[in-house]
Amino acid sequence: MADESTQSIVVDAPPTAIMGVIADFPAYPEWANAVKQTEVLETGPDGNASQVRFTLDAGPFKDVYTLSYAWASDGLSVNWNLVKGQMQRAQTGTYQLTPEGEKTRVTYTLSVQLVVPMIGLFRRKAEKMIMDTALKELKRRVEES
Predict the structure, then answer these.
(1) Which of the 8 DSSP states describes residue 27?
(2) Which of 10, 16, 55, 75 is 20 to 30 A from 25 in CA distance terms?
(3) How many CB atoms lie within 10 A of CB 91?
(4) How many other C-beta atoms lie within 10 A of the C-beta of residue 35?
(5) What is the pTM of this model?
(6) Mind listing the pLDDT tens digit for each residue in 48-98?
(7) Quick count: other Cβ atoms within 10 Å of Cβ 16?
């Protein structure tokens, strides 16, 4: 498995508002620029999506892939794993929410292994860019709601 990358951002909202945006997969194309289409394939007994297909277009990186989700019962984290993808061999990730008074720290951990090998330095730069963009877009969406 590839190395993990981790980044955090503080969002001016409670964890429930943030997790609500994270769990609203049909709305992703409205605010996550690289996500062109989503389809919830399965829903778990808690009502949250357990499997979602994404169509991604991030410039040179395009993919259609399916992720499997596991939602924490306390509403403070969600983990995912790649079920299948065209350009990815593996993907694992986590959003961990930590309340900080009226705000919440969102920590995003991601590990992606592509079908085509990529030099570690370039992979880490790409992961950093993906994570930085995802966190900023999530923050903007939550705080505008």
Answers:
(1) G
(2) 10
(3) 20
(4) 19
(5) 0.89
(6) 999 999 999 877 778 999 999 999 999 999 999 999 999 889 999 999 999
(7) 11
